[in-house]
Amino acid sequence: xxxxxxxxxxxxxxxxxxxxxxxxxxxxxxxxxxxxxxxxxxxxxxxxxxxxxxxxxxxxxxxxxxxxxxxxxxxxxxxxxxxxxxxxxxxxxxxxxxxxxxxxxxxxxxxxxxxxxxxxxxxxxxxxxxxxxxxxxxxxxxxxxxxxxxxxxxxxxxxxxxxxxxxxxxxxxxxxxxxxxxxxxxxxxxxxxxxxxxxxxxxxxxxxxxxxxxxxxxxxxxxxxxxxxxxxxxxxxxxxxxxxxxxxxxxxxxxxxxxxxxxxxxxxxxxxxxxxxxxxxxxxxxxxxxxxxxxxxxxxxxxxxxxxxxxxxxxxxxxxxxxxxxxxxxxxxxxxxxxxxxxxxxxxxxxxxxxxxxxxxxxxxxxxxxxxxxxxxxxxxxxxxxxxxxxxxxxxxxxxxxxxxxxxxxxxxxxxxxxxxxxxxxxxxxxxxxxxxxxxxxxxxxxxxxxxxxxxxxxxxxxxxxxxxxxxxxxxxxxxxxxxxxxxxxxxxxxxxxxxxxxxxxxxxxxxxxxxxxxxxxxxxxxxxxxxxxxxxxxxxxxxxxxxxxxxxxxxxxxxxxxxxxxxxxxxxxxxxxxxxxxxxxxxxxxxxxxxxxxxxxxxxxxxxxxxxxxxxxxxxxxxxxxxxxxxxxxxxxxxxxxxxxxxx
Length: 649
What we know:
By secondary structure, this protein is mostly beta strands. The chain is built from three helices and 42 strands. It is a single-pass type I membrane protein.
């Protein structure tokens, strides 16, 4: 009997693209190349004739192919950089949005050393993210872009691009709005800045008119709202927030989301003394009031050297948002922790839980203002394995080298207190693309509900490049994908023809702050719920996706209920099919039962496999019938010949 033994294995670089090939040598060694790399195997088969050897080696090659395709199906085909970006790999991710309202999420990137902003349009043809010269604007040589905020700032239902730039080493940002049209940007980069502010802005909707507004710090130090009006020639109105005695932090981790369950967006602000301020929206007074100050736990307050960006996720699938804050407890962040502000149920008070994560020989990358993406300590959430529990992407450092690691949300078995979950560092999940990377961010390349990853590589000499990692799950997982869009309409500006030749009209752009909630029953009969918020943060390359994806694991059951909370109203949906993609347009704002809803269903792999299995079964039965029919015809023909050759007396 033949036995395969691996002699050598060489991983492929992320810039190398190849298919599958296999061959064998005279000394009975098999060489195979896959997307994972090169494997060299040997056979223990005893010496045999050339004829038998040829057939034996063919069988071994087929066997090795089957084994590799089965065992490495997660890694095989994972690097799709060429398919996604083509040759445009020099754009650094800055934000996401649907610029041309074609149902594909577009990527906003920075080029030319952060002096040019460009839009890569999503497509269903290769490359999946396409560059257009009409969607690119450059600033002066002495200016550097610090943030990009896509949104509708003039109420024309088309996406504009807000850009903040700085000149030199200063905290004062000049704010420009590049007014958008269907297929181009108006590059008014040489005019006077529309706004000047300290630090970067938070995108929100202050007066609930479905036009994006800003919150930030005025150059005089005052906390301020900049409220945009319908039209491009009207200056934003200024509304002051009651000042606290503590200045706001820069870089900050401000957020706009519902924090008390009334379906209105509230404010989450971070201050220089590492306090988190909760400002709740008052429906009757139509303003915000300070509700609570959250301080760091007493046991760690004096040890904390740096506080990172807050992440808002339902880590336990209990239907409540948790506030996750990464902190460095030493100057180089070799000692770090994840702090979780968690509430077990509605009757208990929220409190801090400290999670200690092992990064092996690595540690969380301590903030470095000289490096893009590393000016803050940021964890980027997303459900990588589609089990329903949100995972995290983190940048770690070791002896000057950077790497992106996946922090998997797993069950906690010890040292977590009453918190049932923790995170486990998986250094192999993104191999080999994760090496020498300073950013990893989730993105759904194929619009199939499975989150893939965009990675930024440092190539030396101050140059960087992006790569695309396809998340090829080794099992069939279900999901629900929800996007809440602004309800503005613009019938004068039609889009490209759809496949039926009918003009499509835009329904506005992505909306910051809505809350999405779902509940269902598992196959074991257990209640399961989760909540998420759309675009709660916009500054410091938070790179929030303009939609929410809930992983359902292998649960084939209907989603019992899905709720969309926005502007103080709730729209429920019942008995949703798994693998549904839901687009909700909340207009008219005060009549949720009239909100426009579009539902798309993505067939799961199980359905496709079932179809192929059914076709294969039919073909097999047809082949059996054909063989039996042929044998019957042959027997009939033989009997007729025998009958014809008989002698009749």
